[in-house]
Specification:
This protein is mostly helical. The protein is built from 8 helices and no strands.
Length: about 240
């Protein structure tokens, strides 16, 4: 069956990484209302749209012979793995920043290693999102739009979090790596068709990552986040998703 390819969704998400951090009104403390709204939208999408799809996709995963006797809930296991992986990365970065404040003169070599670990992990994350984005083009325009909007807002949240951690290194190098990874993931989708079961597992991993990456930006006390804004974003997008 011929696959009609539209490049605009990946270009829009790439544009977010290029220019998202230029939105200066989103920076600073207390945390921007708009970032909290964006985080709420992303989480609502995962719980009300992505996870129900994963539940339907469980039957494909159960057909994997190598996994049949491992666990009966492979899909949700992968969501847990995604959440745990990004929680671990965040702890590594936070602890390293603390060590740098304690002993700033011996920071450079180790600091670069942490930067590349962090950016490399998000590059893989972006590549997976790019692949899912291409797969969404096989579905309805509505499904593609809902995914693209949620990921665009999620990327803005990620951009500000990564810039806070890595400052000029992210602006000069990191965001370019993430853009390239997104496009590469989308391109892989164009030339490689993974089995349906693996696509479902990739979506599950990304879903867990989205939840953790949003909440880690909202929860720290020093961010002075606005709970009502997060709930507003989640509530409005939930209403939209449930009405479709």
């Amino acid at each position: 069956m011929e696959h009609h390819v539209s490049i605009w969704p990946v270009l829009v998400l790439a544009f977010i990484h290029f220019f998202g951090i230029q939105l200066r009104f989103l920076a600073g403390v207390p945390r921007s209302v708009w970032l909290s709204v964006a985080g709420g939208v992303s989480v609502a999408y995962v719980f009300l749209h992505l996870f129900p799809e994963l539940s339907e996709g469980q039957e494909h995963v159960s057909q994997l012979n190598w996994a049949e006797q491992f666990l009966s809930h492979h899909v949700y296991l992968m969501s847990l793995v995604g959440l745990a992986v990004f929680y671990g990365l965040e702890r590594v970065v936070v602890e390293e920043k603390y060590r740098q404040r304690q002993a700033p003169r011996k920071e450079q070599p180790h600091q670069q290693g942490i930067f590349w670990l962090h950016i490399g992990s998000f590059a893989i994350y972006n590549a997976l999102i790019g692949y899912i984005l291409f797969q969404r083009e096989e579905g309805t325009l509505q499904s593609l739009l809902l995914f693209s909007i949620a990921m665009a807002l999620h990327f803005i949240v990620n951009d500000f979090g990564l810039q806070e951690h890595h400052h000029d290194s992210y602006r000069r190098i990191g965001r370019w790596v993430l853009v390239a990874a997104l496009v590469v993931g989308w391109g892989v989708g164009y030339v490689v068709a993974l089995p349906e079961a693996l696509v479902v597992l990739v979506m599950a991993f990304v879903g867990g990552g989205v939840i953790l990456n949003v909440l880690k930006e909202e929860l720290p006390e020093e961010r002075e986040s606005r709970y009502w804004a997060f709930m507003l974003g989640a509530g409005l997008y939930a209403i939209l998703l449930l009405s479709l």
